[in-house]
Automatic annotation (TrEMBL):
GO terms for molecular function: acyltransferase activity, transferring groups other than amino-acyl groups. PANTHER family: GH05617P-RELATED (PTHR20958:SF10), GLYCINE N-ACYLTRANSFERASE-LIKE PROTEIN (PTHR20958). Pfam families: FR47 (PF08445). Residues 148-275 form the N-acetyltransferase domain. Coiled coil: none annotated. This is AAEL002199-PA.
Length: 275
């Protein structure tokens, strides 16, 4: 009998949930692994929950990851029935940023929100192309060296404010999220001889490269490719496939990622839901 309650999956069961996605479902695998990593970093972490319909997640892999204002969800169930049931139990009076969702799961979400008369406007429903880079042996062994006068390093929490200001939808909540990415996930930064930040990229909570950016004064010098390559090296060391989400209408970004060897894998959906 299907469960009718949405419950918190204990963090001790997160590895079991993660391992349901070992065969070809890397994004939910990475999402759960990221939660495990963060729980190790801060055992008292607040507002990070993975929810399931009772114990049914053990069979269907249906879960909702809730981290403050962000939601991510996934299911292995072809019918999506358990995901639909889980959505019915969410409090949709709370605003959420819903990230990295597959087309078939987004359709279930929009159906539920439409029935509740809470479907966001078109400008709050976005798509991004997910690009993946499959490395050859030479690339796996690559060495990354910055040009003279520059150095590669890591971002610090103090950089979060400026990075957030340059993001697509900057808010105080997104600044908090960026600060945690900086503190707890791999990142790469390029500094000049005056220790000024020139270029950077981060890894988000789904294991997707994000916020790749170069200071306007230093563009067209290969610095974006430099920090991206340095990030790929870090991901290789962690046995993580390099993926990046790119808005399909951003032709410059699409051309850049294709130029450096990424190929389109699928479409992901993002929803800014205001409650």
């Amino acid at each position: 009998m299907a469960s009718t309650s949405l419950v918190v999956i204990p963090h001790t069961d997160w590895p079991k949930l993660r391992d349901l996605f070992l065969n070809g479902n890397e994004i939910p695998f990475n999402a759960v692994q990221n939660c495990i990593n963060w729980k190790v970093r801060d055992p008292e972490i607040q507002h990070l929950q993975i929810l399931g319909l009772g114990e049914t997640w053990r069979e269907n892999g249906t879960f909702i990851l809730r981290d403050r204002h962000e939601l991510y969800f996934f299911t292995l169930e072809p019918s999506n029935e358990s995901l639909n049931q889980a959505f019915e139990l969410i409090d949709w009076n709370i605003p959420y940023r819903i990230v990295g969702i597959l087309k078939q799961h987004q359709a279930v979400l929009e159906k539920v929100l439409t029935r509740l008369n809470k479907l966001p406007s078109e400008e709050n429903l976005m798509e991004a192309d997910l690009y993946v880079k499959l490395l050859n042996k030479k690339e796996i062994d690559m060495n990354v060296e910055p040009p003279p006068g520059f150095r590669l390093g890591s971002l610090e929490i103090r950089h979060a404010h400026n990075l957030n200001a340059l993001s697509d939808y900057p808010t105080s909540r997104s600044e908090f999220t960026i600060s945690r990415y900086i503190a707890w996930n791999p990142n790469v930064a390029l500094f000049n001889e005056h220790n000024e930040l020139m270029a950077w990229c981060l890894l988000n909570n789904l294991g997707i490269i994000s916020l790749l950016h170069t200071d306007e004064r230093y563009r067209r010098k290969g610095f974006a490719e430099l920090v991206l390559t340095a990030m790929i090296v870090k991901l290789v060391d962690r046995n993580v496939t390099a993926r990046a989400a790119v808005t399909s209408t951003n032709n410059a970004s699409v051309n850049f990622f294709e130029k450096v060897g990424f190929r389109k894998e699928r479409v992901l959906h993002y929803t800014h839901y205001n409650g």
